[in-house]
Amino acid sequence: MDKTLCHYHPAHPATWHCVPCQRHFGDCCIPLNADAPDETPTCPLCRSKLSFLGAANSAQPFWERIPRFFAYGLQAGPLAFSAVLALASLFMPRSILLWFVLFSIATKYFYSVIEANSEAQKQAPSLLSAFVGEGFGLFFKQLVVFFLSFATLWLAADFDSEALYWAVNIGLLLVLPASIIRLALDKTLSAALSPDEVGQVIKAMGWRYLILCAFLFILWQSPSWVTYMLSHGLPRVVLVPVAAFLFGYFGVVMCAIMGYAVFQYQGALGYAIAEEDSQTGFPAAEYLRRRALAEAEIRLKEGQSGQALETLTAALARDPDDLKLNERFHQLLYGLNARERCLRHLAHYLPLATRMNPAQAATALLNARQFKADFMPEDALVCERLAGALLDRHKTREGLSLLRNLHQRFPEYPHIPRAYLLAARGFAEGLGQVESAQKLLVFVRTRYPQSPLLAEVAALEATVARLAANT
Ligand SMILES: [Zn+2]
Ligand SMILES: [Zn+2]
């Protein structure tokens, strides 16, 4: 089955679907509200309720998680379960009835592992859960499945054809995991024996079902191999409980893989389950902010720039000083060539961005100059900081233009010496205009004799003088 991706972000798996719009959305586009966790999110385009796809597209493939299944079997529940099997193999009296009871408890536990993994629960079922509740009959249902399999094999053996016998044998082995999965999920014998229901599991996984079978086959053999390797020299009284313990452990690992395969292919199997911890909501304010950003992006990609502007305007009314919202709003206005509105917004955006992210503010200023060649911020500090950011980006002329006649434009500004020192550096280092730099430095020295920056002025003058001598 191919994975469905977010319509707007092809790197993100789809987790939501809008039926009317025929659009898939990833978590990237649909933030969740932590204050209303049970609320079904709505479509950013049409506002109808979205349908949840669970982890159908985002689940990690089971063959990439094999170590996790082995670790899963090492939790308290599975280890206690395996220990009980080991103890029973040593001390339980030879009574068929008791063995039936033990096997039905074991089967119930194995199947609860499949079920828990089909929902991607990280914690394994406790040992206690094997002794209480429903499901003791599963063992007998499974017994019927095994019995019918053997009967089929026995019939096949009657035909006197080696090829037929092996075909039936391998066929049964291949179908068995799917049947076990069906029994674990539906708990009915009819489902475990129904070619339709069992076939659905195989069809959902496609050829990867064979990978599952291969893993299960290896795991199924593992306890016998380990026991065989230990069998030299160890007395039977040690070997039997070890074998029973390994049977329990590897059984849990196998069931965890089978269960997780169901989780992974939930979409094709008609389930929608999220992975634990995967759905974290945001506090109300952050949720609204993220939703507005996502919606504006979606609207824009759908060519609905008017609605994108509306969305951002509403979000900015709630949160006027959010940098990201302002940046998006600015980019949108600039992209739409909305000259007047963009320049009006800059009066608010530019000081904000200058304070929080000067490099971003420098970009905004260059945009503004596209609309209005002599655009000037209305604040001296903004001019100075922006000039610094522009000089850093080697936009020397643009940077210097912001500092031109600063002392006349803003006579009250207390940081003229600092700003002109910056300008002198720009002239000398950026443009190689040594004379202009020298003029500025002289101006600072004579006009602001009390400035604490005079030492720096002197140092720069020396550097500039060296530059002048070299040219
Ligand atoms: Zn997306
Ligand atoms: Zn929709």
From TrEMBL:
Q: Does the keyword Transmembrane helix apply?
A: yes
Say which species the protein is native to. Pseudomonas cavernicola
Name used for this protein in its record: DUF4013 domain-containing protein
Give the residues annotated as coiled coil: none
Q: Which InterPro entries match?
A: TPR-like_helical_dom_sf (IPR011990)
The lineage's top-level taxon is Bacteria
Q: Which UniProt keywords apply?
A: Membrane, Transmembrane, Transmembrane helix
> Membrane spanning segments where?
69-90, 96-114, 135-157, 163-185, 206-226, 238-263
For the keyword Transmembrane, the answer is yes
Q: Signal sequence span per UniProt?
A: none
